[in-house]
Amino acid sequence: MNRRVSSPAEVRGAPMDGLAQAIARFAQSDGDYATAIPGLSLHRRKGPTEPLHCIFRLGLGVVAQGHKQALVGKEVVNYGPGQSMLTSIDLPVISHVTRASAETPMLGLMLTLDSRDIVKTAAEMQLQASSRLPSFAPVTVETLDDALLGAMVRLIGLLDQPDLAPHLAPLLKQEILVRLLAGAHRVQLLHLAANGSLSQHIARAVTWLRQNYSAHFQVDELAGHAHMSPSTFRQHFRSITGTSPLQYQKQLRLQEARQLMLSLGIDAGSAAVQVGYESASQFSREYSRLFGAPPQQDVRRLRLA
């Protein structure tokens, strides 16, 4: 399924230009930039990129300039200027930039969210999920409204005010969350805030897997923690994440091993052990199957890129 969400914000002009300029000021060359504001990262690419396996965290992604595409399970999601993409649960995806140039680079931001803040803020706003809510969707793309856009520009602007940022950033992040709960992404966030909902149980299982990706576990045990029968758990886990619990864990392990080799320079065997593999040959086979090349060859390719 290929989904392209219409975006009147693409021709909105000045407001989007302001966001693009704010991002470009701090992301002056290609790369992913962590910032001094917890949870906020800025991104720039001067051309289309190769599809990359990655994990999208619970959070909001915004493209101010350029276009991106994400493969979520079997669904293709395209999004561009003025669109906000909410990932309601940590997901393994294949993502890449589809349109960008040196003159008009892709400029974007990512703001991770905390499920506890979502639950707390929804309660304070007296918002409640009902049985009439549409089905839970792990990824949604909506047009970015001007009020939310303005809050994001002001949040990035705090990077110029390091003395004030620790005090004002939490307030602006709270404003952004309130506007999300009052806006087009409200439905999916309310699913996460609904106590005892299936999506909330699966989200907790995903959180456990992210924190314990190197551990050995039985799916039946994980289903018990989610208060579901094993068959129901498997069905809902796959419908939300696009993969099985064991495949999800495998992708987490391989992603982490890749990052260890890239950032720490350790060899494939050491990385395999650290992420929970007992067999180096199995690690190499599964790594090649996911990333298209053996570990050392893939790492060399990434470093050259």
Task: Give an overview in words.
The protein is α+β, with helices and mostly antiparallel strands and 305 residues long. The protein folds into two domains: 2-191, Jelly Rolls (Sandwich), CATH 2.60.120; 196-305, Orthogonal Bundle (Arc Repressor Mutant, subunit A), CATH 1.10.10. 47% of the residues lie in helices and 20% in strands. The chain contains twelve helices and eleven strands. The strands form two sheets. A six-stranded antiparallel beta sheet has the order 2-3-10-5-8-11. Strands 1-7-6-9-4 form a five-stranded mixed beta sheet. A hairpin with a 5-residue loop joins strand 2 (31-34) and strand 3 (40-45). Helix 2 (115-124) packs across helix 4 (165-182) and helix 2 (115-124) packs across helix 5 (186-193). The model is unreliable at 3-11 (pLDDT under 50).
